[in-house]
């Protein structure tokens, strides 16, 4: 086990999580925001509960700013209420009979602050989240976005060294979500401690976090800056999250990849040894929907990867249309409504799929 870092969060734990054990090593610097992602049952909630002190670890340590909060050897345990940790639960857990001011002041009072000082600090935080005029309202008198702001103010008011956010925007409608997301990013930018956000939403993860950490079956399977994870996903779940088709294959030479076992060969941009990929190496190919072109007739010209396929689904996504196809390689194409009308496509129609070599990103598995 590594020694605790001096500032920020340092985690290296095993936690019993029912059908599997969560094994996670993670460091989050003070001032850094990490988004914890993964499919249902991956261990995200178990990780948050262990950090908050609501679930004991089986091995390893959790340290914050150089102080152990939980360690098995030598044994040390800090109770949840004594940790400098604040958690915003998915359902907020605001006290229904308390006003917004009283909800925000509750954590401060629990830590021994005098009633008048706690109320004054609560009013300050309600002002920071734009709710100075709603301090006397109970949760059932607030909108979903306003209640979310109260939950955030309650968490930040205690000046935690670690902030945990469990699906903080999931209960909000689309319009409110965009506004609260923007405000939350502003508060996270100003937060001096370490922050971890659990979310299933790609936009939330990509806009709120400085780094993404992906869990699957209790293991960290990928992590990195949001742009890098989105550009080069390493699992089908991440690929689906960011809207990319992920193919596994084997490098044939410096610019060709055979997909799957005895699958078709795709011509890609040159990669070769300069990218750490030699012939025979196992690789991934990432294909973005906008890189996939559709034609009614076999296209002539520059595309080097062309095959016949069938339309299996058509869905509107914002101001674009996504067309799912099934053939030699299942693909999703993103086209404009005008292009869809011109092609006159419907599920079951035959179509030609084309991808330029320069649009295929190849990287080691």
Give an account of the 3D structure.
This protein has 365 residues and is an alpha+beta fold. It folds into 2 domains: 9-231, 3-Layer(aba) Sandwich (Rossmann fold); 243-364, RNA polymerase II/Efflux pump adaptor protein, barrel-sandwich hybrid domain (OB fold (Dihydrolipoamide Acetyltransferase, E2P)). 25% of the residues lie in helices and 33% in strands. It is built from 9 helices and 21 strands. The strands form 4 sheets. Strands 7-8-9-3-10-11 form a 6-stranded mixed β-sheet, with helices on both faces. Helix 2 (100-110) packs across helix 3, helix 3 (115-128) crosses helix 4 (144-157) and helix 4 runs parallel beside helix 5 (174-190). It is globular. Mean pLDDT is 91; it is low at 1-5.
């Amino acid at each position: 086990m590594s020694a605790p870092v001096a500032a920020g969060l340092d985690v290296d734990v095993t936690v019993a999580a029912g059908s599997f054990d969560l094994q996670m090593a993670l460091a989050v610097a003070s001032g850094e925001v990490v988004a914890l992602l993964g499919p249902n049952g991956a261990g995200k909630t178990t990780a948050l509960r262990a950090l908050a002190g609501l679930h004991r670890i089986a091995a390893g340590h959790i340290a914050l700013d150089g102080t152990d909060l939980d360690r098995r050897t030598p044994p040390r345990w800090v109770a949840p209420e004594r940790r400098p940790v604040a958690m915003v639960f998915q359902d907020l857990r605001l006290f229904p009979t308390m006003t917004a001011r009283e909800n925000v002041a509750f954590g401060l009072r629990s830590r021994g602050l005098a009633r008048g000082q706690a109320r004054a600090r609560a009013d300050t935080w309600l002002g920071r989240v734009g709710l100075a005029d709603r301090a006397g309202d109970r949760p059932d008198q607030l909108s979903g976005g306003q209640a979310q702001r109260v939950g955030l103010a309650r968490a930040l008011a205690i000046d935690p060294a670690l902030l945990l956010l469990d699906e903080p925007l999931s209960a909000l409608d689309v319009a409110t979500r965009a506004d609260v997301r923007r405000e939350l990013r502003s508060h996270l930018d100003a937060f001096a401690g370490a922050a971890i956000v659990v979310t299933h939403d790609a936009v939330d993860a990509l806009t709120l976090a400085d780094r993404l950490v992906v869990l699957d079956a209790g293991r960290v399977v990928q992590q990195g800056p949001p742009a890098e994870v989105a550009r080069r996903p390493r699992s089908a779940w991440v690929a689906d999250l960011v809207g990319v088709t992920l193919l596994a294959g084997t490098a044939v030479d410096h610019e060709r990849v055979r997909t799957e076992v005895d699958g078709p060969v795709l011509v890609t941009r040159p990669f070769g040894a300069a990218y750490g990929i030699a012939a025979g190496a196992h690789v991934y190919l990432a294909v973005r929907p906008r890189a996939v072109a559709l034609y009614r007739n076999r296209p002539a010209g520059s595309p080097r990867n062309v095959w016949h396929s069938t339309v299996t689904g058509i869905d509107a996504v914002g101001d674009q249309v996504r067309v799912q196809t099934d053939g030699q390689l299942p693909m999703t194409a993103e086209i404009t409504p005008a292009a869809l009308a011109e092609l006159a496509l419907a599920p079951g129609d035959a179509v030609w799929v084309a991808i330029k070599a320069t649009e295929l990103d190849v990287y080691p598995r």
